[in-house]
Amino acid sequence: MTRFTPILVGLLLIPVYSSAKIHNYVEEDGMVAVEAEHFVAQSKDEIRRWYITDADTLPIDGADFDGNHSAGASGSTYIEILPDNRTNHDEALIHYTDSETDANFAPIPGSMGILSYPIYFNTAGLYVFWARAYSTGGEDNGLHVGINGSWPESSARVQLCPGKHQWTWSSAQRRSHNHCGEPLTVLVSVPSPGMHTIMLSMREDGYELDKFILTKDFSFVPEGESIPASIREESTIDRGNSYTDIGNYDFRLASITNFFPVEGSVPFYVDKGNQVLAINAAQKEHRDAFAAATTRFQSKPGKYRISLITLTETDGESVYRVSANGKLLGTFTNPETTTDYGEVVFDCGIVELANKDELKVEFNAVTNGKIPENDETAYSRGRWRGLILTSVD
Ligand SMILES: [Ca+2]
Ligand SMILES: [Ca+2]
Ligand SMILES: [Ca+2]
Ligand SMILES: [Ca+2]
């Protein structure tokens, strides 16, 4: 049963001309603090989706009943998973299943609203997880934590009980005999020094998260905004250009934040330096086959001219296919170049889009035989930066 039909108006679309920031998180001295709004990817978001919220964020009609809590949030920004249609104990609890289209509860970690946070860990071992969350009622207070695509029982069901109506830190795991849990019971094991992806997923819709901390110090208790975000360096895009050749457009769907993997296709990764999706062509099985990424259009329905932005690569002319709702709009091949990472704009034509329509981009890694590398030739990585949409209504 759906009580309302939320109209999600463009909140996930990056504002025109915003500069892309790159956050490189690193754990030092057994501690790392991460702004929740700095996730690099979101998946399983068809039913509920995390929205980045600050003071300027417009409310989504009928989706969020407890308002904007950016005042008091670290960085004045947080995330909330919406729509929230179970705001109190008397409203229906709808469990996630493969066929349920309006689930508001995900007891199994990793089933809805998955976020990824790549972090460089200097220190392996056991960490306690602290969440800074905001809850206004008896519900909207549960979250799951995972690492590298797995969802250990030790970090499931982060629960926030005391400290309602304010930003509050919790490290308590909900357990059957103690629903509020005890502090220091949400534990994440980091297997080795190096890059690992900390993952979050929804347990209850309407959950609001400002920041999280992983610490090896079990006597540490965060207060207020606590320690600053553990960002080693922050920079804007300095290679290639960013959509500069097209000055007049309405929406930009960035590949690295708006698009998510299609199961079964060739895997891809986020090339942070270039702010693009790319295929790791060092792995031979990833070459000469298409990776696929999709997004849902979430803005004003209407007619749009769609353009695909790719980057040139000297070692191969990658091929790109763009489709809307399964219909192929065009197949494009990058031009030969002597310069890496210059933007190329391909016109995909005019398309009528309704809310939640699917847009898909496929891309491949190929070699043109020109750049020797070891005893073979180098491959392109299918780099692309996003789609831009220009209203033609
Ligand atoms: Ca809210
Ligand atoms: Ca809820
Ligand atoms: Ca809420
Ligand atoms: Ca924050």
Overall structural class, as computed from helix and strand content, comes to mainly beta
Tally of discrete structural domains: 2
Portion of residues within helices: under 10%
Distance, first to last CA: 34 Å
**CATH C-level category of the largest domain:** Mainly Beta
Low-confidence stretches: 1-20, 235-241
Task: State which percent range the strand residues make up.
Answer: 35-45%
The CATH topology of the largest domain turns out to be: Jelly Rolls
Specify Rg, calculated over alpha carbons.
21 Å
Instruction: Please give the CATH architecture of the largest domain.
Output: Sandwich
Bound molecules: calcium ion
Please report the total strand number as a whole number.
Answer: 28
The dominant shape is globular
Give the topology string: H per helix, E per strand: EEEEEEEEEEEEEEEEHEEEEEEEEEEEE
Characterize the largest beta sheet: strand count, sense, and whether it forms a barrel.
8 strands, mixed
Overall pLDDT level: 87
Number of helices: 1
